[in-house]
Amino acid sequence: MDHSPVTAIEWADVVVVGARCAGSATAAALARAGRDVVVLDAATLPSDTLSTHLLWPAGVAELQRLGALDEVTALGAPRLTRAYAEGAGFGIGTAFPAVDGIDYALCVRRTGLDGVLARTAKAAGAEVRQRCRVESLVWEDNRCAGVRYRDSGGAMVELRAALVVGADGRRSTVARLVGAESPFLSVPSGRDCYFAYWRDTVDSARHIAAQWREGADLGTAFPCDDGLVLSLVQPPATGDRPGPGAAERRYTEAVARIPALAERLRGCERVGRVRAATHLASYFRRSTGPGWALPGDAGHFKDPVTAQGIRDALHYGRLLAESVTEVLDDPLALDLALAAWERRRIAECREIFHWTNRLARGEAMRPMEIELYRRAATDPELAEITTGIFSRTRRPAELSTPVRATSLLLSALRRQPAAAVFTDVAREIRGAAHEWRTTRTTLRGTLAPASTPPEARSARSTALGEQHV
């Protein structure tokens, strides 16, 4: 617990820690509803952050609901109107399904995107304070009642609020301080992630979001703002801590192992360094408690292989605000609303969580997956379902109905060794059974109360004492 003297005490309805996707969406919705919202961010905005920043139509639709789409569009990222996925020599090309009239994807670099989001929250009426680092929480009667933070001048300030929203990412300070840092479900990724920007060629297909699978490697090309293309590769994870030059080497080697990606980048000039995200794990953390909530990556994270993070941060940040705005003055009603919001996010994200973890295994395509690509290359309905899963307009379960699964199995047996096919099917059955058990136990949507952090247990006697010295 921080014992620095407090130089000022302030009050707000809500304090949001983190001014990026989840934080700005939460703050803007609350401020528009007439609530007094203060947003704290340790960084100077706009600034970059590690992110693959693709928004499927569902994510673009969230920008539209937030009132930020026009300004994001002005950043210059092209509309991505076609999706293309290729594996085992079969290519699947589709249009995007529309979500609230949005039928295109966008890939917008985070410096520009986050700057727009922070300005949108401010325009909605939220106060955004930069270079402010939260160091501890205020507890009163076992409730989170605010934060203590160092402002840009180094002074310690206490900010009291009915709700503290930790929208501060995977390494969330708020999650640590409320005792929710350790996930209640975590699935390590089988892939590492490396990405870089390239100056795109004038004759390239800048309306296509493309992904290729080659052996155990996965690579993408997403045209983005300023005439660039974001190219990401996800080779199998090594488990090693990358040393100097490892990111550059692994990225270059992975691109070379994916001929179609190398061809897409032919004639392009790389801009800047290779960035890396390794030792990834998808997870759910306990995300609500008395007076606190964790939207965005602070509470739930999925491997970047399906590019769901920004959409979910915007979507569930907005829903969090809508859930609590009318009950902030009633602690019991607030806690019930927070718990209902958390259950909703778990219920709605369970299936895409499992789907993402399958794609993140870091292994070569198996017989049934190859057959799915083969069929989808000539079956528009199957191709549309596949693209719709990423946009959250279709469910992964639609790919494995009994009729479709039987048809794919028979087709695979005609083309591939029976032993390999049945081994694959047996593995998928075991995996599906494990996911079913996880969904109905760990992810059943009802959670035991979080453990009370030590700070909260002692807060009743100190909350009014030490900070007024």
TrEMBL record:
Residues 444-469 are annotated as: Disordered. It comes from the Bacteria. InterPro entries: FAD-bd, FAD/NAD-bd_sf, Geranylgeranyl_reductase. SUPFAM superfamilies: FAD/NAD(P)-binding domain. Residues 12-325 form the FAD-binding domain. GO terms for molecular function: FAD binding. This is Oxidoreductase. It comes from Nocardia mangyaensis.
